[in-house]
Amino acid sequence: MINVTKTFLPDQEQYLEYVRGIWERGYLTNNGPLLQELESQLKSYLGVDHLYFCSNGTIVLQIAIKALELEGEIITTPFSYCATSNAILWENCLPVFVDIDANTFNIDPAKIEASITDKTTAILATHVYGNPCDVEAIEQIAQKHQLRVIYDAAHAFGVSYKGRSLLSFGDISTCSFHATKVFHTIEGGALISNHPELDKKLHLLRAFGHQGDEVYLYAGINGKNSEFHAAMGLCNLPQVRSIIEARAQIFDWYHEGLDWEHMSRPQLMDDVEYNYAYYPVVLPSEEKLKGVMKALAAQEIIPRRYFYPSLNTLSFMPQRFDCPISEDISLRVMCLPLYVGLPQEDVKRICNIINDYLSA
């Protein structure tokens, strides 16, 4: 079977060497030495000053909202994974959905201001498929209306925009290190902040909000991660460059092999060093998409409808917002298999199945 993704695993002996060290120290969690080393290496790799390694890519969104003391309405995108909007709901805020740009699939800055009210406190935007949002336009709007900016950068590890890590934009950026990501720690996530005054607060919020056993400062949560997860990160981080190069090669094979007369894909922003996190294609209709998926499944090839459905259409959303572009794209988009080690002949076979179905 060819799945939409396959987890990259480092040299087993290298990981076991870290595990043996954990056994010897008997220090498994609570800000251990491997976790601190991973945070240091991540800060160096990304060129950022303030980064905290946490347990997953959802809890970091919740901590970011809590750290910025957001209330009321948060403007966000309907074209993302449900973790983005769920985090807003869990923190008792209202997600206000603004439609996406038809070319990039990111939130459309030209439509944001019309949705700002006296209850709006922030913009939470997703760098969809690792493709940068229009960060300059969003920053300008945020400054004009005194809003905070959080970027859900779950897909964006290893992406640079104008020579700067994409994770360094916004008041806070969050990242996911789930096993399916370009860089992973099995489960994990990170908080990256541009504000020194948030540094101590983020540190405390991810660990119950107290110092020692006597000084309690915030209503924190358990967002810590373990030495075992940090060990996987320390093994994988030196491999990121070669991982991205391998993914870029597969990306090119798809680009050359697919018949673009019958489909399209999102447009990458300019001045970007991309990480090739996903390979999304947009079909002419949902009927065609389902037909292609059925044809691929018959050959044990499993793509993913990512993102579907458009988040503004979820039944549990407290308020309805119309986002016709997101609603349309979500019905017709899917991500094709993309992972290190996917053979060229399998990519050609995937392309041929799709091309043959759409040209029939």
From TrEMBL:
It holds the Pfam family DegT_DnrJ_EryC1. The modification N6-(pyridoxal phosphate)lysine is found at residue 181. GO terms for biological process: polysaccharide biosynthetic process. Keywords: Pyridoxal phosphate. GO terms for molecular function: pyridoxal phosphate binding; transaminase activity. The active site is at 181 (proton acceptor). InterPro entries: DegT/StrS_aminotransferase, PyrdxlP-dep_Trfase, PyrdxlP-dep_Trfase_major. SUPFAM superfamilies: PLP-dependent transferases. Belongs to the DegT/DnrJ/EryC1 family. This is dTDP-4-amino-4,6-dideoxygalactose transaminase.
